[in-house]
Protein backbone atom coordinates (compact mmCIF):
# COMPACT_ATOMS: atom_id res chain seq x y z
CA UNK A 1 0.00 0.00 0.00
CA UNK A 2 1.22 3.50 -0.82
CA UNK A 3 1.93 6.46 1.40
CA UNK A 4 -1.70 7.31 2.00
CA UNK A 5 -2.48 4.10 3.89
CA UNK A 6 -5.60 4.35 6.01
CA UNK A 7 -5.61 8.13 5.74
CA UNK A 8 -6.36 7.92 2.05
CA UNK A 9 -9.61 9.74 1.22
CA UNK A 10 -11.50 8.67 -1.86
CA UNK A 11 -13.54 11.87 -1.57
CA UNK A 12 -10.46 13.81 -2.71
CA UNK A 13 -10.36 11.73 -5.88
CA UNK A 14 -14.05 12.39 -6.45
CA UNK A 15 -13.60 16.13 -6.01
CA UNK A 16 -10.67 16.25 -8.42
CA UNK A 17 -12.47 14.05 -10.94
CA UNK A 18 -15.46 16.41 -10.93
CA UNK A 19 -13.19 19.43 -11.36
CA UNK A 20 -11.36 17.66 -14.17
CA UNK A 21 -14.65 16.94 -15.94
CA UNK A 22 -15.52 20.63 -15.80
CA UNK A 23 -12.13 21.61 -17.22
CA UNK A 24 -12.38 18.94 -19.92
CA UNK A 25 -15.72 20.37 -21.05
CA UNK A 26 -14.08 23.76 -21.61
CA UNK A 27 -11.00 22.32 -23.30
CA UNK A 28 -13.06 20.17 -25.64
CA UNK A 29 -15.01 23.17 -26.88
CA UNK A 30 -11.80 25.10 -27.48
CA UNK A 31 -10.19 22.32 -29.47
CA UNK A 32 -13.38 21.57 -31.40
CA UNK A 33 -13.42 25.20 -32.56
CA UNK A 34 -9.76 25.02 -33.54
CA UNK A 35 -10.39 21.79 -35.41
CA UNK A 36 -13.27 23.34 -37.33
CA UNK A 37 -11.25 26.45 -38.21
CA UNK A 38 -8.31 24.35 -39.37
CA UNK A 39 -10.63 22.25 -41.47
CA UNK A 40 -11.97 25.44 -43.09
CA UNK A 41 -8.40 26.55 -43.82
CA UNK A 42 -7.71 23.24 -45.56
CA UNK A 43 -10.85 23.63 -47.65
CA UNK A 44 -9.85 27.12 -48.74
CA UNK A 45 -6.41 25.90 -49.76
CA UNK A 46 -7.95 23.10 -51.80
CA UNK A 47 -10.29 25.55 -53.52
CA UNK A 48 -7.19 27.58 -54.44
CA UNK A 49 -5.56 24.45 -55.92
CA UNK A 50 -2.88 24.54 -53.22
CA UNK A 51 -3.03 20.84 -52.45
CA UNK A 52 0.51 20.57 -51.09
CA UNK A 53 -0.15 23.40 -48.62
CA UNK A 54 -3.44 21.76 -47.67
CA UNK A 55 -1.63 18.48 -47.03
CA UNK A 56 0.64 20.22 -44.53
CA UNK A 57 -2.21 22.16 -42.93
CA UNK A 58 -4.31 19.04 -42.44
CA UNK A 59 -1.88 17.89 -39.74
CA UNK A 60 -3.34 20.56 -37.47
CA UNK A 61 -6.84 19.18 -38.12
CA UNK A 62 -5.64 15.74 -37.07
CA UNK A 63 -3.84 17.10 -34.01
CA UNK A 64 -6.91 18.99 -32.78
CA UNK A 65 -9.23 16.05 -33.43
CA UNK A 66 -6.85 13.73 -31.58
CA UNK A 67 -6.90 16.12 -28.63
CA UNK A 68 -10.70 16.13 -28.61
CA UNK A 69 -10.73 12.32 -28.74
CA UNK A 70 -8.23 12.08 -25.87
CA UNK A 71 -10.26 14.49 -23.76
CA UNK A 72 -13.38 12.44 -24.41
CA UNK A 73 -11.63 9.32 -23.11
CA UNK A 74 -10.31 11.19 -20.08
CA UNK A 75 -13.80 12.47 -19.33
CA UNK A 76 -15.15 8.92 -19.41
CA UNK A 77 -12.43 7.73 -17.04
CA UNK A 78 -13.13 10.55 -14.59
CA UNK A 79 -16.80 9.60 -14.51
CA UNK A 80 -15.73 6.01 -13.84
CA UNK A 81 -13.58 7.10 -10.89
CA UNK A 82 -16.61 8.80 -9.37
CA UNK A 83 -18.83 5.81 -10.03
CA UNK A 84 -16.35 3.30 -8.56
CA UNK A 85 -14.93 5.43 -5.73
CA UNK A 86 -15.64 2.72 -3.16
CA UNK A 87 -13.16 0.41 -4.89
CA UNK A 88 -10.45 3.06 -4.68
CA UNK A 89 -11.12 3.50 -0.97
CA UNK A 90 -11.28 -0.16 0.03
CA UNK A 91 -8.57 -1.75 -2.13
CA UNK A 92 -4.90 -1.13 -1.43
CA UNK A 93 -3.86 -2.26 -4.90
CA UNK A 94 -5.17 -0.71 -8.09
CA UNK A 95 -8.64 -2.26 -8.64
CA UNK A 96 -8.83 -4.34 -11.81
CA UNK A 97 -12.08 -2.60 -12.74
CA UNK A 98 -10.28 0.76 -12.70
CA UNK A 99 -6.85 -0.28 -13.98
CA UNK A 100 -7.42 1.11 -17.47
CA UNK A 101 -8.94 4.36 -16.22
CA UNK A 102 -6.27 5.07 -13.60
CA UNK A 103 -3.37 4.00 -15.81
CA UNK A 104 -4.61 6.04 -18.76
CA UNK A 105 -5.11 9.15 -16.63
CA UNK A 106 -1.59 8.84 -15.22
CA UNK A 107 -0.24 8.53 -18.76
CA UNK A 108 -2.33 11.48 -19.95
CA UNK A 109 -1.01 13.61 -17.08
CA UNK A 110 2.55 12.90 -18.21
CA UNK A 111 1.66 14.23 -21.67
CA UNK A 112 -0.46 17.21 -20.66
CA UNK A 113 0.89 20.58 -19.58
CA UNK A 114 -1.56 22.90 -17.83
CA UNK A 115 -4.08 20.60 -16.16
CA UNK A 116 -3.76 20.93 -12.34
CA UNK A 117 -6.54 18.48 -11.45
CA UNK A 118 -5.13 15.77 -13.69
CA UNK A 119 -1.64 16.21 -12.28
CA UNK A 120 -2.96 16.05 -8.73
CA UNK A 121 -4.82 12.84 -9.53
CA UNK A 122 -1.57 11.41 -10.85
CA UNK A 123 0.20 12.34 -7.60
CA UNK A 124 -2.54 10.74 -5.52
CA UNK A 125 -2.48 7.50 -7.50
CA UNK A 126 1.31 7.43 -7.41
CA UNK A 127 1.22 7.73 -3.62
CA UNK A 128 -1.56 5.19 -3.37
CA UNK A 129 -0.18 2.51 -5.69
CA UNK A 130 3.54 3.26 -5.75
CA UNK A 131 6.16 4.88 -7.96
CA UNK A 132 6.73 1.67 -9.88
CA UNK A 133 3.06 1.46 -10.84
CA UNK A 134 3.10 5.06 -12.09
CA UNK A 135 6.36 4.56 -13.99
CA UNK A 136 4.91 1.51 -15.70
CA UNK A 137 2.04 3.66 -17.00
CA UNK A 138 4.15 6.65 -18.05
CA UNK A 139 6.79 4.52 -19.78
CA UNK A 140 4.21 2.20 -21.36
CA UNK A 141 5.94 -0.91 -20.10
CA UNK A 142 4.72 -4.38 -20.96
CA UNK A 143 1.40 -5.31 -19.36
CA UNK A 144 0.54 -1.74 -18.42
CA UNK A 145 -3.18 -0.99 -18.60
CA UNK A 146 -3.04 2.27 -20.55
CA UNK A 147 -5.74 2.30 -23.23
CA UNK A 148 -3.87 1.68 -26.53
CA UNK A 149 -6.14 4.07 -28.43
CA UNK A 150 -5.10 6.94 -26.18
CA UNK A 151 -1.39 6.61 -26.95
CA UNK A 152 -1.45 7.91 -30.56
CA UNK A 153 -3.98 10.59 -29.59
CA UNK A 154 -1.40 12.12 -27.25
CA UNK A 155 1.63 11.45 -29.43
CA UNK A 156 4.10 14.30 -29.90
CA UNK A 157 5.34 12.92 -33.22
CA UNK A 158 4.35 14.33 -36.59
CA UNK A 159 1.47 12.61 -38.34
CA UNK A 160 2.52 10.22 -41.10
CA UNK A 161 1.93 11.22 -44.71
CA UNK A 162 -0.54 8.38 -45.20
CA UNK A 163 -2.84 9.55 -42.41
CA UNK A 164 -2.57 13.16 -43.57
CA UNK A 165 -3.55 12.19 -47.11
CA UNK A 166 -6.48 10.11 -45.83
CA UNK A 167 -7.78 13.10 -43.87
CA UNK A 168 -7.27 15.37 -46.87
CA UNK A 169 -9.26 12.96 -49.02
CA UNK A 170 -12.08 12.94 -46.47
CA UNK A 171 -12.25 16.74 -46.35
CA UNK A 172 -12.13 16.99 -50.13
CA UNK A 173 -14.91 14.42 -50.47
CA UNK A 174 -17.10 16.33 -48.00
CA UNK A 175 -16.66 19.47 -50.10
CA UNK A 176 -17.04 17.82 -53.49
CA UNK A 177 -13.45 18.47 -54.54
CA UNK A 178 -11.50 16.13 -56.80
CA UNK A 179 -7.88 15.70 -55.74
CA UNK A 180 -5.05 14.90 -58.10
CA UNK A 181 -2.77 11.93 -57.54
CA UNK A 182 0.51 12.49 -55.69
CA UNK A 183 2.60 12.25 -58.87
CA UNK A 184 0.38 14.53 -60.99
CA UNK A 185 0.49 18.26 -61.52
CA UNK A 186 -2.38 19.46 -59.40
CA UNK A 187 -5.31 21.30 -60.95
CA UNK A 188 -8.11 20.73 -58.48
CA UNK A 189 -11.65 20.82 -59.77
CA UNK A 190 -14.95 20.75 -57.98
CA UNK A 191 -17.39 18.06 -58.95
CA UNK A 192 -20.34 20.14 -57.74
CA UNK A 193 -21.30 23.80 -58.10
CA UNK A 194 -19.39 26.01 -55.69
CA UNK A 195 -22.44 26.87 -53.58
CA UNK A 196 -23.27 23.22 -53.08
CA UNK A 197 -19.67 22.43 -52.21
CA UNK A 198 -19.65 25.08 -49.53
CA UNK A 199 -22.86 23.72 -48.06
CA UNK A 200 -21.50 20.19 -48.00
CA UNK A 201 -18.28 21.40 -46.43
CA UNK A 202 -20.14 23.29 -43.73
CA UNK A 203 -21.97 20.10 -42.84
CA UNK A 204 -18.65 18.28 -42.56
CA UNK A 205 -17.27 20.91 -40.22
CA UNK A 206 -20.35 20.87 -38.03
CA UNK A 207 -20.12 17.11 -37.70
CA UNK A 208 -16.42 17.12 -36.86
UniProtKB/TrEMBL annotation:
Gene3D superfamilies: Vacuolar protein sorting-associated protein Ist1. It comes from the Eukaryota. One of its GO terms (biological process) is protein transport. PANTHER family: IST1 FAMILY MEMBER, REGULATOR OF VPS4 ACTIVITY IN THE MVB PATHWAY PROTEIN. Belongs to the IST1 family. This is IST1-like protein. It comes from Solanum tuberosum.
Amino acid sequence: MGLFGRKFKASKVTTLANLAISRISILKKQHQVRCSLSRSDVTQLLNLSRQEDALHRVELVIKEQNTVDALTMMEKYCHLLIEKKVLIKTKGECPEELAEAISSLIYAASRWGEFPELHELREIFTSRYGNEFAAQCVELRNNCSVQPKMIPKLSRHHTGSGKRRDMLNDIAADCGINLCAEDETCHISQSKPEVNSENECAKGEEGS
